[in-house]
Amino acid sequence: NNAQASGLPIGVDTCREVFARLGVDDNGLNEEDINVIKYLRDNGAFDIRRAIGEKAITTALGIELVDYRSIIEPHLLKLNLIGRTTRGRVLTHEGIDYTNKIYSDEQ
Fold first, then answer.
1. Closest to 24 in 3D by CA, of 63, 75, 68, 60
2. pLDDT in tens, 31-49
3. With contact defined as beta carbons under 8 Å apart, do 54 and 68 qualify?
4. Residue 86 and residue 8: Cα distance in Å, rounded?
5. Which ranges constitute the DSSP H helices of 1-107?
6. HSE on the CB side for 59, CA within 13 Å?
7. Residue 9 DSSP SS3
8. Which terminus of the chain has a lower count of CB atoms within 10 Å, N or C?
9. pLDDT of 62-95, one tens digit each?
10. Cβ burial, residue 105 (10 Å; 0-12/13-18/19+)
């Protein structure tokens, strides 16, 4: 805020620090986004046979369905972390790689 008010440029490090304080990672994912992909992984949603419906996801995680549909899912789809099938949502290969990184960072 002070840098912006003084006309000084805001650098990448400052942005990363602010996003970290807000709980947003380098991919723009927040805690709810990460919880969705963790939920899919933890429940084995790796292919259409194990796909999980959006209502099941939102109920389990305490997320409003409208928020999931309008905010969370579009972002995860754009990053190709999840896939949408006729049976529900699945974790993509990118999503599996991403959750592997999350789980290894938590240890």
1. 75
2. 899 999 999 999 999 999 9
3. yes
4. 50
5. 2-6, 12-22, 31-42, 54-61, 65-67, 73-78, 93-106
6. 5
7. coil
8. C
9. 999 999 999 999 999 999 999 999 999 999 999 9
10. exposed
